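Dear Dr. H.,

I hope your travels went smoothly. While you were away I took the liberty of generating a structure for the chain from your last submission, since the lab meeting agenda had it listed for discussion. I wanted you to have the full record in hand beforehand rather than looking at slides cold. The sequence, exactly as received, is reproduced here:
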Amino acid sequence: MRTYVLQLTLSAAAAAAATPSAYAHSDVLVRSDGARVLIGAASDLDGEEGGPEFDLTTRVFEGVLLNPAAPTPPFGFDFERDEPGFYSQPGLAVGQDLPASAGLALALEPLTISSGTDSVFYWDGAGEVAFEPLSTAQPGVDFTFQPMAPAPFATTDALGAVDDHPLFGLTGGAADGVYLTQVRLAVDGLAPSEPFLMVWLASSVITTEELAESLEESLEAFEEGGPAPIVAGVDFTFFEEAVEFAEGIPEPSAAVLAAFALAAAARRARS
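The corresponding predicted structure, in token form, is as follows:
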């Protein structure tokens, strides 16, 4: 498994090379270019805001986890939810259709932020955004989803369509805060996707689906210039700060290009 080193102190060259975007509460759109899995956003699938809308540029996704009164058996998650989902339909205007009867499998990918490497990072939401490797910040806590690769969590139908919601969760006595993961999606018959980021909010006050949906609506309104996203007496502005942080992480290919640019600049400076 490859580790992508994402240094957040890269120069403006790296920032200019990275062009990620995030759609709060969108599902993950799964398409192909005929050879490789392509990832983007599938938003407003119910058409309430004039959608649906699809893109192949989004690489940062948001998830609001629940603090369940009764965890889904047999997993015993501290926090869990089956959002976002993974979606594709034949004939969409972006990308190519997926193969028929193809399994979809999701796997965590390690990344490095500053000097720490892990497959999951954690920030408690206090002060400036400062993600730490989860293994350091909360030893024994684990982020997972069911089922994990290599087992498929979904299979496309005879036309290549899929609309599935795997269960994501935290175990081991997880604390409230923000969790950052990098994942890669594999589809049978295609090369896996490029890695993409998923930012997760875990809060003890979000105990029902209704509260989670209310928070999602408040976060979306806040992103569009509305009031602070306050739900159940908690101001969740810090979560949007974490998402902005994730949006600033360059894609692996952009990070490599930026590293080459920095090396070239250093060589010119020495000459």
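Two observations you may find useful: The radius of gyration is 19 Å. Residues 1-23, 254-268 have pLDDT under 50 and may be disordered.

With kind regards,
E. W.
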